[in-house]
């Protein structure tokens, strides 16, 4: 029988077989998938693994601190944080096409990892082992939706599948490639990761970059980050975290609408709340959030986030909509 502990045992054995006594790095996104992938690989190969967290400037409020503090406390893993905000902002300047954004973010991610690997090797000195492997938390639905599964069309290039450069310098270790999200969570608990990490709602690798409809700029990111933090705070306060799969907040940066705030006319941007319920993200239903929670989120965002004068609700299921807007 395929129990969670047998999944862990089999996967650990497969990782040992693949990596042997060589070294690997793992990109942590702060999400469940990369955390569980890293914990599995650490169990398999111990300190042959170094985790790398890239701050690409597309993170949500508090995310970097959470990885640096909570994940390290839970696993004891060796972590290197790289500040790559300027690099990503430069690469994304002027880009509005969703697939182009995804490909740029995926490519820059890998380039930053390659640099991190070179730096780690330089630190290890001449006799330090070469880093040959890159660990990724790719799930089965990511594989399918990027056209890697049996017969599926390419819907989106998930950054960790479709966006890889052709001259990739690492072999990939993808221990979650056959698993769905609920299985990943069970594996995480089996490995002793805390509930705060295991039951975290999904957040895409390309981050807030695919939640700004239009060009990604530092100012727009700041606006979206503020709106997102409010929505998350209110959903948590209402005790709804475990009832919803995730609730992206999307900034319609290229759309403006007229409003009236304080003493006068405003010409600001709408945000969209996209609360969804799902088992595995392959399909999803829009979540019927209580009206008082929606009202509280709307009031706070329009009061506290200066560029936003309208809050809208996405009532589309998947299909036909995807969960993320880009
Ligand atoms: P979609 O928008 O395809 O999203 O319905 C399905 C689930 O996947 C997440 N998502 C991603 N996760 N890299 C990731 O790690 C990505 O490029 C990516 N794109 C979407 C999304 O948040 C949802 O949970």
UniProtKB/TrEMBL annotation:
EC number annotated for this UniProt entry: 6.3.5.2
For this UniProt entry, the molecular function terms from Gene Ontology, in alphabetical order, are:
GMP synthase (glutamine-hydrolyzing) activity
Q: Where are the transmembrane segments?
A: none
Record keywords: ATP-binding, Glutamine amidotransferase, GMP biosynthesis, Ligase, Nucleotide-binding, Purine biosynthesis
Binding positions (ATP): 29-35
Give the reactions, separated by semicolons, that this protein catalyses: XMP + L-glutamine + ATP + H2O = GMP + L-glutamate + AMP + diphosphate + 2 H(+)
Name of the top EC class for this enzyme: ligase
Q: In which pathway does it act?
A: Purine metabolism; GMP biosynthesis; GMP from XMP (L-Gln route): step 1/1
Tell me where in this chain the GMPS ATP-PPase domain is found: 2-200
Subunit structure and binding partners: Homodimer.
Functional description taken from the UniProt entry: Catalyzes the synthesis of GMP from XMP.
Protein name (database record) = GMP synthase [glutamine-hydrolyzing]
Measured against the full-length protein, the chain present covers 211 to 536 of 536
């Amino acid at each position: 029988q395929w129990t969670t502990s047998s999944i862990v045992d089999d996967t650990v054995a497969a990782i040992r077989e693949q990596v042997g006594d060589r070294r690997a790095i793992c990109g942590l996104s702060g999400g469940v998938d990369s955390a569980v992938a890293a914990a599995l690989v650490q169990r398999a190969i111990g300190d042959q693994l170094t985790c790398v967290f890239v701050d690409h400037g597309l993170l949500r409020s508090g995310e970097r601190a959470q990885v640096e503090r909570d994940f390290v406390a839970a696993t004891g893993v060796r972590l290197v944080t790289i500040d790559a905000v300027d690099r990503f902002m430069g690469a994304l300047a002027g880009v509005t096409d969703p697939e182009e954004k995804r490909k740029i973010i995926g490519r820059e991610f890998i380039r930053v990892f390659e640099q991190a690997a070179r730096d780690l090797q330089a630190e290890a000195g001449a006799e330090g082992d070469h880093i040959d492997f890159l660990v990724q938390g790719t799930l089965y639905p990511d594989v399918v939706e990027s056209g890697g599964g049996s017969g599926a069309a390419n819907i989106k290039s998930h950054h960790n599948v479709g966006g890889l450069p052709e001259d990739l310098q690492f072999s990939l270790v993808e221990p979650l490639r056959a698993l769905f999200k609920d299985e990943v969570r069970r594996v995480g608990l089996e490995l002793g990761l805390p509930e705060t990490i295991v039951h975290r709602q999904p957040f895409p690798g390309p981050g807030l970059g695919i939640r700004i409809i239009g060009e990604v700029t530092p100012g727009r990111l700041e606006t979206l980050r503020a709106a997102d933090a409010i929505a998350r705070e209110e959903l948590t306060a209402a005790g709804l975290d475990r009832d919803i799969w995730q609730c992206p907040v999307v900034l319609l940066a290229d759309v403006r609408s007229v409003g009236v705030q304080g003493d006068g006319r405003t010409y600001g941007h709408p945000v969209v709340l996209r609360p969804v319920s799902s088992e595995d993200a392959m399909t999803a239903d829009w979540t019927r959030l209580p009206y008082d929670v929606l009202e509280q989120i709307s009031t706070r965002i329009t009061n506290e986030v200066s560029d936003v004068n309208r809050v809208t609700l996405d009532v589309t299921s998947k299909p036909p909509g995807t969960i993320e807007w880009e």
